[in-house]
Each structure stands twice: as C-alpha cells, then as structure tokens.
Amino acid sequence: MTRDSDPDQPEAVTCTGLAYSFGETNAVDGLDLSVRPGEVFGLLGPNGAGKTTAIRCITTLLPVPAGMVRVFGSDAAKDRMGVRRLLGYVPQQLSADAGLTGRENVALFARVFDVSRGERAERVGQALAAVDLTDAADRLAKTYSGGMIRRLELAQALVSAPRLLILDEPTIGLDPIARTGVWEHINAVREATGMTVLVTTHYMDEADQYCDRVGLMHRGRVRALGTPTELRQGLGERRRAEGAPASAPLPTLEDVFRDVAGSGLDDKSGDFRDVRSTRRTANRVG
Amino acid sequence: MSEAPAVLPTVSAERVEGIDLLLRPPRPRAGWRLLPARVGAMCTVELQKLRHDRTEVYTRAIQPALWLLIFGQTFTRIRAIPTGGIPYIDYMAPGIIAQSAMFIAIFYGIQIIWERDAGILNKLLVTPTPRSALITGKAFAAGLKSLIQALVVVVIAALLGVALTWNPLKLLGVAGIVVLGSAFFSCLSMTIAGIVISRDRLMGIGQAITMPLFFGSNALYPISVMPGWLQAISKINPLSYEVDALRGLLIGAHAHVALDFGVLLVAALIGITAASSLLGRLAR
C-alpha cells in the first residue's frame, strides 16, 4: 500500500538528529525519521522508548532543542503556527470534554481552526458522520463508551482537514472490538481523504495489520525501519542463515523487536509515571 | 445498508461519504481577528457547559446569600462600620458580588490542570492558537462564568432590598469590571497552576489566599478604618479596586471608577502575560 514518494512533494515528517532530554534522561536521543505523504506510519516501542516525546516535538508541544523537525517542509521550531495548521492530533488520554456534547466537542475545534461561521455546522456534521457518531452527536460525551470517545476525538482532529493525523496510542485500553472499530475508521478516513497518518502503539499485532511502514523505537532512536513484512522476512532469513530450520514460522513483529532491542528490555520499559498514566487511561476507557 | 453484515458492520472508504469539506483546510483568520475568535470559542464552551450543568451556579449562590442575609442584616442594625450614611447591607452588597466573582475565578486554575491531565490542554495547544490567546480566552471565559454568578448575587441583593441602580449603562460598566477583575484572578490562579502543577496544591493555595484577599480589601469595611499595614495591602489588592468601582456604579457611592477600571485592566494584562509564560510548563 505504500505509495511511491513524489520528489516534488516534501516528506510528511522529517526528523533529523532530534534529541530531547528530561534532566539526565535522554528520552529522544538522535532520532532520524521520515514519514512519506499518504502512508500510515507506525512508531513502535515499549513504554518509555521515547515515542510520546518524539510526537510532542513534532506537534510543537515541546521545543526542538537539538536537531530538526519538519512537517510538509515547515520547520516545527520556527513556524509553529504553520505546522499546527497541518496537524490533527489525538493524544493518549481520552481527551474529549465530558461536560459537552459530541457536537460541541467537535465545534470547539472547528472554531479554533478558524472554520467560518457559515460552514461550521455542516463541517462538524461531516466530521461526526465520518466516524459514525451522527446519532449520538447531541448526547453528552460522558455517556459515550471508550471506543466512541476515540472516534469523537478522531472527528475533532478531522474537522480542520489536516494533512497529517497524529495518533498517540489510539487503541490503548480498548477491548478488541473497539480497537478494530477505531482502526477501521482511521483507515476509511485515510483512504477517503489521502491524509498521512503517524501513529504510535505498543501493540505489535495492530502495527503489523494496519501500518504501511513501521519504525521500531528503543531508547530514543529508531532501531529498525521498513514494512512489517520486510522486517519479519529479514529476520526470518537471518535466522535461517544462522541455522534455524526452513520450516520455522515467519517471526512476528514482536520477535523483530526483541531482536532489535536485545536484552534489558524488561527493566527499562517505562518508569512508574508512564505505567500510572497508561493505567489511568485504561481505567477511563473501562 | 442494503445487505446484512455478516459479523460486524465494517467501515470502508465507500461508506465515508459527503466529506467534501473535510478535504479543504479552513482559511486562516487574519492576525488581529484571531484573538477575539479564540476568546469567543472559549466563552462559548463555558456557556455550553453551564447550560448542561447549572449545579455550580446554585451551590455557589448559597454563600453570598448567607453573607448578605446574616452578616449584612446584623451589621446594618449594629451600625458599627462607618459607611457614609449608606445602610450597611447596601454598602457590603458590591463587596459580596466582587467576592463571589473572585471565588469562581481563583479556582479556575483547577480546571486548567484538569484539562491538562485529560489531554484537552495539549490538544488545544496543537491548534493555531498562540499561548497568550489561549490564556486570554480562558480568562474571559472565567470572567463570563463569574459574571453569571455576579448576576445571581445582584438579584439576591435586590430581593433583600438593596437599592441598586437599574441604569443600563452603569450595569454594563459593572459587567466590564466583573469580567476584568475575574480575568485577573483567573490568571493568578492559572499562573499558580503553572508553578505547582498539581490540583491538590493549587486547591490548598487557593484556599489560603482567598480569605486574605477578601479581608484585605474594602469589601466589608472602608480602607480608612484599617490599621496602616492592612491599608497598604488593601491598596495593592485588585479586589479593592473592583469593589470600589462596583460600589460607585451600583449604589452611587463616591468612587474612582476610571482609576479602578485602569488598574484592573493593567492587572489583567499582567496576569495574562504571567499565565501565558508559564503555560509551557503545563504542556510538558
């Protein structure tokens, strides 16, 4: 599904030597990354690999202290407003306002993205319809299920017609059916609009199934990059060359990840705060 | 859907129809129109929330009602406080209106921290909204919320027989003063939020500063009867200027409305600047 990159069109995202540290911890440590226009790119890694920090630099939430970040050619350090106009962002937490209806939640983002008054109602309606929330649109978001809130957030992000949709752990804490639902909506919208999708996840099976290309991130850097099939076949071939039987099943993305990350994966996978915030999100989703 | 889905209804590109508007990015607003638009957006959200849940307006009306009813009526009989010939309940009503507006604003930072924890703040920060515009929007939204509260207290005061003005121009001035004062106090709250980050600590600090701000102002008694040190505090306390203006506008007492307006405007601008510069800490 990967589209050939057009030499005239700038990459959707380019990070060169991006580094960000919290005190002594180098959360992102010389990250090089490029996301092609129109693809679904998955940034994978365990808790604490630096995915969220990288995403926050790309979304202009954090400054870019070292290296460079560009979104469709615009510099995230210099042209923050320009970059923000290109982005739709869904953070890890369930970020819809529970005290507002679905429609009001989406309308807020139409307003802050300068959608004109004459167009607002219709545009909000289209965004809600695209995620199948038309019927629930006038109910308070606190009555929504976890999967519905994720779809509502997708509508909030879509209402400004972003060229790049950034989703941070979109399916965390959801049940399998809701997870599939969220991914199907992401894909349907991507196919209909041609937007680029950058998604972080630590569910390797989802990345395998839904991403055109993935980058495996560990300790602040991308350690392996390619289509899920390329990465799995690559490891399979290497294992056969090292004497594994030809009948051995193709390695999974998780195997690839263990291979890349090596040992010590368990004791560095996310600090207390990470796990707590992940659990909190999972709790809210129910 | 003409055919029955086999297991689960699946979504496909064909089903996502009528999305022509979602393919066209909205045209950016010109620079000077951005700020009023963001203020409008934040105020709209505040009104929508109040429409869905008015509990806060009612529960927060109890305290000022008690102040006026008990403290006001008792002290009117005692005549202990020199008010310049005005019945004491009339004298204190503008003070209680300012107090109840301030109480709403001073805890507004809790909402910002809640929005931060919920990821809402981050999402707003990834929109084409400069931080100062976001804070200004929030400050005016807090002002609007306080104004609605102030209206409730004005009605209670009127029911208790306080002789208030019904001059629409003066009432408009009252609204402006309440919004500006609350914009300042909400920015003070959001500034503290940016420093302490945690909701519990902000709650504690909020509790600790509201009473000193209230008693260290002219809300209940004139500055002239205060000891010297309290007079000094009262003169740098924006609440005193808010009360002075409200007293002048609402009950026609002697006041320096223009000066009060100027002080509150400058205070609000300083507050917006301080809160905006600390907002980045909440984004981290």
Written account of the structure:
Chain A: Keywords: ATP-binding, Nucleotide-binding. Chain A: It comes from Streptomyces spinosisporus. Chain A: GO terms for molecular function: ATP binding. The complex is a heterodimer of chains A (286) and B (284). Chain A is of the alpha/beta class and 286 residues long. Chain A has one domain: 3-Layer(aba) Sandwich (Rossmann fold), CATH 3.40.50. In chain A, 40% of the residues lie in helices and 21% in strands. In chain A, a hairpin with a 2-residue loop joins β9 and β10. Chain A is globular and about 65 Å long. Chain A starts with 12 loop residues before the first strand and ends with a helix. In chain A, 52% of the residues are buried. With 284 residues, chain B is an all-alpha fold. Chain B has one domain (54-74, 87-283). Chain B contains eleven helices and no strands. Chain B has helices spanning 31-52, 55-78, 88-106, 108-117, 120-125, 131-159, 168-196, 199-215, 228-236, 238-251, 257-283. The longest helix of chain B has 29 residues, at 131-159. Chain B is elongated, with a radius of gyration of 23 Å. At the A-B interface, β6, α3, α4 and α6 of A face α1 and α5 of B.
How do you describe this structure in short?
The complex is a heterodimer of chains A (286) and B (284). Chain A is an alpha/beta fold.
Topology:
The complex is a heterodimer of chains A (286) and B (284).
Chain A lengths: L12 E10 L2 E11 L4 E5 L6 H8 L7 E6 L2 E2 L4 H5 L2 E4 L11 H11 L4 H14 L15 H13 L5 E5 L7 H18 L2 E6 L2 H7 L2 E6 L2 E6 L1 H14 L11 H9 L10 H14 L1
Parallel strand pairs in A: 3-8, 3-9, 6-7, 7-8
Antiparallel strand pairs in A: 1-2, 1-4, 4-5, 9-10
Chain B lengths: L30 H22 L2 H24 L9 H19 L1 H10 L2 H6 L5 H29 L8 H29 L2 H17 L12 H9 L1 H14 L5 H27 L1
Key phrases:
heterodimer, A: 286 residues, alpha/beta, 6-stranded mixed beta sheet, 4-stranded antiparallel beta sheet, 10 helices, 10 strands, disordered N terminus, B: 284 residues, mainly alpha, nucleotide-binding (chain A)
